[in-house]
Write a structure and sequence with these properties.
Blueprint (H helix, E strand, L loop, with lengths): L1 H35 L5 E7 L2 E23 L4 E6 L6 E2 L4 E5 L2 H29 L5 H27 L1 E3 L4 E3 L9 E2 L4 E18 L11 E6 L4 E15 L5 E9 L10 E18 L11 E9 L5 E9 L1 E6 L2 E6 L6 E5 L10 E3 L17
Parallel strand pairs: 1-19
Antiparallel strand pairs: 1-18, 2-9, 2-13, 3-5, 3-8, 4-7, 5-6, 7-9, 9-12, 10-11, 10-13, 11-12, 13-17, 14-15, 16-17
Helix pairs in contact: 2-3
Length: 375
Amino acid sequence: MNKRMIQMVAAVIVVVASLAFVKYQQISAAMAGGKSFSMPPEAVTTVVAARSEWATTLDAVGSIAPVQGVTLSADLPGVVDGVGFVSGTHVDKDQVLLTLDTRQERASLASAEARLELARLSLERSKKLLAQNAIAQSEYDIVSASYKEADAATQEMQAAIDRKTIRAPFSGFAGIRQVNVGQYLRSGDPVVPLQSLESVYVNFSVPQQSLAALHPGAVVHATANNGTIGPFEGRVTAIDPVVNDATRNVSVQATFQNPGGRLRAGMYVTVAVVVGNSDQVVALPTSAINYAPYGNSVFIIEDMKGPDGKSYRGVRQQFVKLGRSQGDQVAVVDGVQPGQEVVTSGVFKLRPGAAVQVNNKTQPSNSPLPRPEDS
């Protein structure tokens, strides 16, 4: 019985030893394979860092206002007799835009002109009689005053007729008319907006601490609709002398030429006021920056050597100090030198020393003045 037990134990030990040896061989082979295994290179895009010239600017959001713009309205009440313009078209200065019914005023004018003529004849006769000493000076003065009174009444009726004729005070584009023939207008009722689009104002505000950098004549760049309209160049023409006590901002007005009338009153624009000399900066796409709480960094491609001694293209993580942004780009103040190849996409999947494969067929946006297609 004891001999049989010993044989069974010996057999178990042999089986266990055999299994352990086999497993040891498998683990050793796996470890050897792991040491020789290397991750495949990550596909990335790159850009060669270069210096760019960026002007020192103050950025703000402004709104467009017309240099000449008004909503024409009725001066006197009356019924619309005629409309002399088409909505949305260009009109010339002094062009008749609207006339009101003046039949009653013209009848009164004819009566006043008849009284004026009678007063003129009486005045001429009185002059002759006065020269002959046939009438007293006081009688002549009464006739002269009557003539002046008749003349004033005539001018008053003519002025009333003229005030019922609305003319364009300046050349510009008429908006959508708000009246129709036969409509009764009260005094002050709107007729049509009129805007001159040859030049426009851009009104914006800057913080009071930036006031010292501003001066009349400073160059201003403006774009609208996320950069799809513009850029336009204008100049600062007015700076409000009063600081808003609620916002501590200063109102600024710039004047822009408006070729083609692309800027319209009421539009919002992005404004950049040039306040200093241009700076030389290393500009990179914002997609190249690996933003992190412990510090922002980029990945620079260099030639490296692996554990097997072979050379490969890998990345080195470099912490950087960033400046201001402009369009798709950000200024790198410190950490990147011109000529270094920087990864611009795929930074989130990289680690220091990782192998990369550069494929620049499709590049991320890298424009200081981007024009989004879907904006």
